């Protein structure tokens, strides 16, 4: 423990642990406040209590009696005091109390101690082997027979951040008492200390109103609320230590040994037109696109401004209410412009006029447009240079211009976040960072095969293998599935060359290369996540979770729908209502009424978070909010 720390001991019996701690901290600036539930006369009946109390006071500590650890905020002596560490050793309700009463004790203690816990403070709870209910207990008790320490702490927005052996050898004078309200001690041989810390609060989903220039037209639109936390995170900026940036650097460095990769730095819009997607075939299913209603289109926008300024996507209103409408057909006015709810925008017919824009599902259309512009500029410059040069200089130019007609000896790359309207699943991402690499090579050299083999060499140590399928190569790994692909396309006016493109999912690769338990960790705002990558660890360095053994909670939801039902709308509302904590959705029952044009659906939802404290109470709140949003947005009748 670092100097100048305040420690609160609760639930003391004979004060032997506090006395031992005072001796351990001797010479430091750590102050100890030791408390017990009993009044002074009763506490002094414990063997050795008087001597231990005197040791605490001689060390500069404080001793308080009649302090209820479940009501610390009401203790007058503790008010206006905050502690860096709160310690509760072997909590027990006394006598032959069952696990339910002891769970309640833990829950009330956690809710109480956060009132006196300093920012960045820790709560240490020592439990006998098996009581905590985590995999660290050996043997582990059945869940219903444990104290469910993680779930009880989550009720107070605390997460289990560390767990270690109770070091009784450091506290030689500690005599454990209180077993069944007697001087008899608990079994501490395999006891574990559970270290809890505060969780960040949940960030509610909100609408983001955006303004961008797309193909020379200034447009305004709204980012669907369930995607609001994936915008403007800047994970790939030059000074970033985010794992997706580390993975990108690792890949580019590995490829550069055979082919130099020139990364494009132009800013490109989040919005894409249907025409752009059709022109540059990406192999993207239009059903997986987030189709967007435009709020406003300015056909007279100044197209003479710089490309970077034009394409700089920015929010014009960063925060809007999460519930702007009460129904699918309801509309609201924002700055005099008519707008629709995000869930409604998913119903757009891609063939219709209003569905001509989407959030980019791939960077390929914009990359190929940028490369075409670069090639046109290079060819124009070369043509001008060749006309004014002599024959010898012209020959040199011809030698240097071996990349005419798009042929080049290097690779171009671009990376950024893309969006896919996919159902909720363990490895299904509504947004992820795509790295695109493209080059033009002579056909006879089999460049696609060479690039695939190089990628496999780099990624094989992390479980990635290449599978040849129709249309190209697929990079796959268990359990995440598809992490990338390599494919070829024709080069116009050049039959002897082929364009090779590699598309890689940096998020899933980061999961594999750093052994992350959940891809959602990549989007965590908790500074403890990025802290582990501040030293630029090499790929293969395992991530150490700051939220250990989070508990999942399962809820079912049933409702009647009308004759039209779009399941992707349901998934969008689930993501928004649950703040992204639902990791699995499964349809378990479907029934169509023979007389009414209605269908009943029953879904099973699993709430689980590796980034935030998730209690049963919180999960139930999310689930009730989901019922409300489904009724108002999708006009379903909750059963």
UniProtKB/TrEMBL annotation:
UniProt-listed PROSITE patterns: FDX_ACB
Domain FDX-ACB positions: 548-639
GO biological process: rRNA base methylation
InterPro entries (UniProt xref): aa-tRNA-synth_II/BPL/LPL, BMT5-like, Fdx_antiC-bd, Fdx_antiC-bd_sf, SAM-dependent_MTases_sf
Gene Ontology molecular function, alphabetical: rRNA (uridine-N3-)-methyltransferase activity
GO cellular component: cytoplasm
Coiled-coil residues: none
Protein name as it appears in the record: Ferredoxin-fold anticodon binding domain containing 1
Organism: Oreochromis niloticus
């Amino acid at each position: 423990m670092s100097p100048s720390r305040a420690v609160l001991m609760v639930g003391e019996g004979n004060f032997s642990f506090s006395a031992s701690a005072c001796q351990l901290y001797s010479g430091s600036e750590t102050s100890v406040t030791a408390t017990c539930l009993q009044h002074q006369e009763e506490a002094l009946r414990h063997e050795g209590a008087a001597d231990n109390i005197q040791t605490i006071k001689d060390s500069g500590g404080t001793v308080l009696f009649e302090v209820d650890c479940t009501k610390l905020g009401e203790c007058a002596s503790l008010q206006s005091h905050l502690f860096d560490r709160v310690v509760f050793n072997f909590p027990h309700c006394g006598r032959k109390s069952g696990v339910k009463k002891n769970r309640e004790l833990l829950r009330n203690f956690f809710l109480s101690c956060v009132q006196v816990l300093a920012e960045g403070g820790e709560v240490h709870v020592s439990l006998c082997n098996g009581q905590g209910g985590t995999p660290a207990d050996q043997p582990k008790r059945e869940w219903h027979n444990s104290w469910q320490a993680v779930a009880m702490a989550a009720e107070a927005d605390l997460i289990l951040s560390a767990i270690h052996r109770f070091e009784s050898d450091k506290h030689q004078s500690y005599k454990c008492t209180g077993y069944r309200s007697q001087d008899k001690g608990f079994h501490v041989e395999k006891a574990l200390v559970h270290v809890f810390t505060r969780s960040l609060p949940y960030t509610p989903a909100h609408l983001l109103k955006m303004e961008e220039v797309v193909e020379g037209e200034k447009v305004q639109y709204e980012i669907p609320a369930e995607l609001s936390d994936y915008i403007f995170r800047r994970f790939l900026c030059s000074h970033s230590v985010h794992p997706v940036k580390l993975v990108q650097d690792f890949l580019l460095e590995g490829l550069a040994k055979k082919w130099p990769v020139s990364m494009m730095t132009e800013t490109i819009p989040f919005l894409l037109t249907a025409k752009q997607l059709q022109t540059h075939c990406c192999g993207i299913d239009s059903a997986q696109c987030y189709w967007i209603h435009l709020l406003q289109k300015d056909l007279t926008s100044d197209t003479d401004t710089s490309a970077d300024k034009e394409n700089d996507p920015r929010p014009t209103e960063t925060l809007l209410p999460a519930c702007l409408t009460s129904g699918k057909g309801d509309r609201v006015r924002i700055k005099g412009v008519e707008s629709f709810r995000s869930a409604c925008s998913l119903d757009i017919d891609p063939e219709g006029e209003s569905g001509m824009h989407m959030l980019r599902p791939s960077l390929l259309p914009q990359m190929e447009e940028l490369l075409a512009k670069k090639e046109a500029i290079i060819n124009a410059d070369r043509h001008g240079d060749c006309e004014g040069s002599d024959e010898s200089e012209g020959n040199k130019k011809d030698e240097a211009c071996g990349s005419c007609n798009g042929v080049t000896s290097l690779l171009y790359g671009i990376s950024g976040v893309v969006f896919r309207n996919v159902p909720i699943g363990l490895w299904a991402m509504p947004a992820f960072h795509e790295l695109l690499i493209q080059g033009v090579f002579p056909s006879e050299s089999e460049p696609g095969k060479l690039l695939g083999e190089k990628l496999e060499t780099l990624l094989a140590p992390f479980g990635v293998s290449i599978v040849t399928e129709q249309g190209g190569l697929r990079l796959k790994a268990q359990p995440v599935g598809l992490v990338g692909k390599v494919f070829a396309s024709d080069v116009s006016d050049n039959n002897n060359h082929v364009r090779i493109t590699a598309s890689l999912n940096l998020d899933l690769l980061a999961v594999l290369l750093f052994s992350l338990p959940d891809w959602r960790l990549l989007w965590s705002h908790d500074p403890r996540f990025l802290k582990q990558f501040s030293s630029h660890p090499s790929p293969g360095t395992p991530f150490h979770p700051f939220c250990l053994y989070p508990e999942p909670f399962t809820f079912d939801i049933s409702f009647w729908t009308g004759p039209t039902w779009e399941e992707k709308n349901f998934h969008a509302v689930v993501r928004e209502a649950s703040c992204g904590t639902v990791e699995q959705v499964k349809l378990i029952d479907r029934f169509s009424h023979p007389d009414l044009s209605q269908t009943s659906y029953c879904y099973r939802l699993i709430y689980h978070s590796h980034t935030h404290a998730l209690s049963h109470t919180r999960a139930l709140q999310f689930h009730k909010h989901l019922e409300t949003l489904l009724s108002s947005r999708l006009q379903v009748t909750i059963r």
